[in-house]
């Protein structure tokens, strides 16, 4: 059975465990508008596979690339407008300057 990647099925505790993030970190990302989970009638947050991929990209930008949350907001906004940026993020082909070996690139 194939699940629609937009269909919200994961609770915040499951997402936090899958990604190794603290639940409060995920809530902070939501407050900043970086992620928008669906809510049940009882206000339980539910995340889709696409939400998890977005959180992985955010985590990559913060932990690996060293981008602050204001920068992440800009990158996320740009990735929504430009699909090629979104593809770079999903493939993790955006690298921090010091990993490339060429700080001028």
Task: List its salient traits.
105 residues, 3-stranded antiparallel beta sheet, Multidrug-efflux Transporter Regulator, Chain: A, Domain 2, 7% strand, single chain, mainly alpha
Structure description:
55% of the residues lie in helices and 7% in strands. The chain is mainly alpha-helical and 105 residues long. Strands 1-3-2 form a three-stranded antiparallel beta sheet. Strand 2 (38-39) and strand 3 form a beta hairpin. The longest helix has 16 residues, at 49-64. The N and C termini lie far apart (44 Å). 18% of the residues are buried.
Put the structure in a nutshell.
This protein is mainly α and 105 residues long.
Tally of contiguous helical segments: 6
What would you report as the Rg, rounded to the nearest angstrom?
15 Å
Overall pLDDT confidence: 86
In the CATH scheme, the class would be Mainly Alpha
Kindly name the structural category.
mainly alpha
Please give the largest β-sheet: 3 strands, antiparallel
Poorly predicted runs are: 100-105
How many E-type strands?
3
Give the CA-CA distance, first to last residue.
44 Å
Spatial order of the strands forming the largest sheet: 1-3-2
Domain module count: 1
Q: What is the 3D form?
A: globular
SSE string? EHHEEHHHH
């Amino acid at each position: 059975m194939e699940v629609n990647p937009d269909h919200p099925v994961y609770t915040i505790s499951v997402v936090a465990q899958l990604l190794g993030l603290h639940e409060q970190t995920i809530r902070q990302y939501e407050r900043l508008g970086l992620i928008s989970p669906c809510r049940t009638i009882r206000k339980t947050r539910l995340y889709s596979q696409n939400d998890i991929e977005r959180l992985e990209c955010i985590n990559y930008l913060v932990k690996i690339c060293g981008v602050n949350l204001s920068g992440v907001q800009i990158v996320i906004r740009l990735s929504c407008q430009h699909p090629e940026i979104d593809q770079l993020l999903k493939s993790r082909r955006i690298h921090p300057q010091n990993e490339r070996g060429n700080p001028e690139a």
